[in-house]
Amino acid sequence: MKLDDDTRNTLEGLEHVEDAPLTATHGRSASLLQYLMAAGYVENSGPGRMRISDVGRRALADHRGH
Question: Could you give the CA distance from residue 58 to residue 29 in angstroms, rounded to a whole number?
């Protein structure tokens, strides 16, 4: 599976942190954030916060060819 650059960059930014405020994804469109949630790549981790999900980690691994 190949991820588009915006999706990959956002997931990689979340990969090594427990969670992040939505404001940390500045420059990301609302439609991208909605897509990430709908695809299950990220999940809600509290008001205004998100984290990468297991599905997102697997998508990154698949993208990298692991």
Answer: 23
pLDDT tens series, the chain, 66 aa? 799 999 999 999 999 999 988 877 656 778 888 899 999 999 999 998 999 999 999 999 999 996
Q: Which of 65, 63, 54 is nearest to 5 (CA)?
A: 63
First to last CA, the chain: 11
pTM: 0.86
R_g (Cα) of the chain, nearest Å: 11
Please give the backbone phi and psi of residue 15, each rounded to the nearest 5 degrees, phi first.
-60, -35
Q: Which residue has the tokens 């981790």?
A: 45
